[in-house]
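3.2 Worked example (two chains)
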Amino acid sequence: MTQPQANTAPTVLKRDSAFAVQCRVLHALILRELKSRYGNRRLGFMWAVIEPLMFISVFVAGFHLIGRSSQGGVEAPLFFVAGFSPFFMFRDIFSQVKSGTQGQQSLMMFPQVTRMDILLSKLIVNALISISVFIVLMLGLYVIGFQYRIENPLGVLIGFSLIASIGLGMGLVFGALAIRYEFISSFSEPLLGRPLFLTSGLFFSASVLPPNVREVFLYNPLLHCIEYIRTSMFVSFDSRYVDLPYVVIFTLILNSFGLMLLGVFERQRK
């Protein structure tokens, strides 16, 4: 006598949500980016610490030679770390996002991977590395005897986030233009690098500038961000020249324009 067969319902495969797929793609791209940059370089992260440390040491020595040990009521090493670290984050994000708009066709063959996934992974990796370097430098200064207390950690995070967004926006704009006009890729960083280095408040505060010079420099949104980071970090530093609404509007327009350009030139490239 045969046993009656039990009714078996067909197996239903649960499909992941689009958000879950997006997170997995970003996770894989972030791991790939980290491996490609630091996988075979034992001193890769150390160089990320050494480079700003070299600049900071030069400017601290220069201040010492002219008999100054502080700026804006903040000891020189702390003042410079709060300026150079966010600026280097902007520089690296701008450079990596700009280069990320070129090539990468092997990754684009996967249907789950988009150009923005690649650019976001570069943004996240560079932001995390830069913030880690900033924390290492600040802890190092504390260990060797520089006493400080960060007054507004949220403000510091907002300042870094705005600088990362500016780097993303500029990378999108110049990277998209380089798709159509290849010569832009070779001169964009030298063209922007030195003027921004000199006008972003890395080694000065806005309050020490002559009024006519300060009015021009304040068109640079990075100066507002760095002033805001220092104001958020140190109780003795208080800048009345920070205009966050200006920075937010500038960032939104810059990123919107960059995304529009990237979309137009990506379609033409295909």
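3.2.1 Second chain
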Amino acid sequence: MSETMKAIVMHGPRDYRLQTVPKPVPGPGEILIRTGAVGLCGSDIKCYTGAALFWGEDGRPGYVEGTPIAGHEFAGVVVELGEGSAEKYGVAVGDQVIAEQILPCGTCRFCREGSYWMCEPNEIFGFKQGRAEGGMAEYAILPANAIVHLVDPRLSAVEAAYLEPLSCAIHAVDRAQIKEGDVVVVAGVGSIGLCMMQWAREFRPKMVIAIGTRPSRLELARRLGADVVLNVRADDVVQAVRDLTGGYGADVVIEATGGLDGPQQALEMVRKMGTIVAFSSIKEKVLVNWNLVGDQKELVVRGAHLGPGCYPKAIEAVAEGRIDVASLVSSQFPMEDFDAAIDAAMTADGVKVMVRPSGLDA
């Protein structure tokens, strides 16, 4: 009889179950890890609460296929190597590793061009039963098409799991092409926004302005290096940014609010010929004054998706203490308390909730 393990299996909106399932066995080129920690992010909450993107609507299928194991922000320790995987990845049993969240097909146009993070099938851990199972389990398979990185041993289990959102943050900031002396706005001080703010400081800007709605997160942003914090609920943030920049507006605005008003706010607070990076995933369609992009301001607008090429940067930055992600972990739960963990992620005033499949002491 095959070995078993505990896992959180997705059966539908608000129907995630702790189940006993077969423990996976690594095939050629695959790695089996014992999962150390799994982060809960905004997309996990949207999926859990039934967003149509994930579960479909009006007869259209959603992104979730079958009943997969949840979780895409995870890392762990190698416990078994499939044939050829040690040589392929340069890892050994006992190493802490992380795989990038996307499993590129290698054959679509974008993969062939080297833009693997835009892979047309776009298969992300935690949403596809049988081929892209997540890490919300005692053990997880990193498939043969995974992009695996060796984690610096100085990183804890939760810091290792945080490398996924941190890499997304780094990619977004890199897309902004910040120059020394720029005024940079990071709009949105959630898990990724607070990472963006820290990475933006690497480029020696004149000022980093953090914008949000929760006082506790804004205070954390200040402690982590924001020069100015603005509360949308208390301040006219567009006017405040203009006042801080001689009436011109910010050189760079990174939009990570996830709110309907965020894109228009970004267009209004950036200076003429400035740069906006669009990172937010917004459920509803957004209406903006498009004239600000071309006719009135001649803006550069760039999108940012996932964290390509950024995992080594993230690992080094955390290991060297240049980026603090440990302070962003507000609570940790054993997998048996998943319901409490998801409730905390949806309602708490903290930043990042972690689930620990191998136990809180692992």
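3.3 Remarks
The two ends are 27 Å apart (CA to CA).
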